[in-house]
Amino acid sequence: MQRQNYLVRCCKLNINNKIVRKFSLNATASLPTQSWGVFPREKEGNLYAVNWSLNVDGVTPVGAAYRNARIGLLTSRLSSKVDSKGKVELAKPVYSGLYTVKEAGDTVSQDAFDSMLTERQQYLSSGVDLFVEDASLGAYSPSRIGARIISDKPALSLIARALMIPSPSRPTDHRARFNGWNKEPRWLQPEITWNGSTYDVVDIPTVDKKGERPIVAFVGGAGSDIAVQFVQSNKKIVGANVIAGESAPVRGLIAAVGEAACVLINAQSATSIAVPSIALTKGNDTIVVINGDDSLATSAAQKKTLYGAYHNVLSTNGVSALWNGYIGATSTNGSLPTVVVGGQAAVALEPNNLAFPSKEIYFFEEGATKGKLTEEEAIKKLVDITDESKKEVAGSILKGANIYVTGSTSDILESLLDWENK
């Protein structure tokens, strides 16, 4: 698939000025005259650093904007109360349903995506309260990647919090969205030294990646469209925009954000391969099912062998889950309230940073009869899923593994039975 260049547009300063003027006028109406000069007037839901970072994402927070909001605040905004078991029954967002993930420059034009993105940004800038989840994808820090989900639904924030990898609390930096953003010349602090005859100027780039959020999902507004657009800088993929209408199923949002994360990890890490997959573990044994069916994740969860649902990162060090949880039957998430819709919920797994390297790998292909693959055949399949640059690392990951192709979940479940009989 061709990845085309696209520059993310920031809100113009005059928009932000308009908000400041509006805030100032509203604030003075209820404050004593001697308080007019008090600055800043920040409060929960109106933090300037968060507002600036949303402006960089093309969203103007006219209403309140809550970043990684308190659980109590989120639950107070739900249409139903959390019961004594920590569960809350809601009508939406739906977890499952038909969906198609479109890609800008491939299955949808760049112009069409731009229109959809603008529509979502305008909706989120229309005065609705915003709930922003900044977290991570990837349990293993060397291949972990930051992501942000912006919506007007507190329930979606609770769901995202169960599904995404928690990140340490960090201040918001509006400059830190993309990998390499802080390496631009205007953000560098040059080192100037005198060599005896002239000054030597050395640019020292900021390499700390903390707080980056190269993937941003804009969720809200009418419809069920789901699409992803990759962002490039200097001919390298550095981020992705994801859009989803409020009727889109959560599973579709997972697919789009997960696809974006896999592409970014594969572009940025020479020693890892991120693929749509399901990882199962028991003791020191790991099975990876590439393009595995969701029903397998459900069965593995019931047998308590599910390690990573939907997407995983493979390396010679081991297997790393991209997601913190999965969509399954109603369950509790400890201190985090469980949002139940139609008997389904986002269930947190809290996977270990790494599972053991997989010695049994399946390529799940609809209609395929189970058969063993050579390393060369498997390498070609991984290259087809990713790109030619992954050929060497694919060979290292697959070396010595038992590799199969199958179109039947029962073939994999037989391996789980073998584990149970050990």
Give your account of this protein's structure.
- The chain is an alpha/beta fold.
- The protein folds into two domains: 1-26 and 40-176 and 211-270, Phosphoenolpyruvate Carboxykinase, domain 1 (3-Layer(aba) Sandwich); 272-315 and 356-422, no CATH class.
- The protein has helices at residues 13-28, 48-56, 71-76, 110-124, 154-163, 250-268, 294-302, 375-385, 391-398, 409-420; strands at 65-67, 87-89, 101-103, 130-137, 145-151, 191-194, 199-202, 215-219, 226-233, 236-244, 273-282, 285-290, 306-308, 311-315, 318-321, 325-329, 338-341, 344-348, 360-364, 371-372, 402-406.
- A hairpin with a 2-residue loop joins β11 and β12.
- α8 crosses α9.
- The longest helix has 19 residues, at 250-268.
- The radius of gyration is 23 Å and the shape is globular.
- Residues 1-37 and 180-188 have low confidence and may be disordered.
Shape: globular
Question: Can you tell me the CATH class of the largest domain?
Answer: Alpha Beta
Proportion of β residues?
25-35%
Number of domains: 2
Mean pLDDT: 85
User: What's the count of strands?
Assistant: 21
CATH architecture of the largest domain: 3-Layer(aba) Sandwich
Q: At the third CATH level, what is the topology name of the largest domain?
A: Phosphoenolpyruvate Carboxykinase, domain 1
The biggest sheet amounts to: 8 strands, mixed
Q: Indicate the structural class.
A: alpha/beta
Q: What is the alpha-carbon Rg in Å?
A: 23 Å
Distance between the termini: 44 Å
Give the name of the CATH superfamily of the largest domain.
Answer: Phosphoenolpyruvate Carboxykinase, domain 1
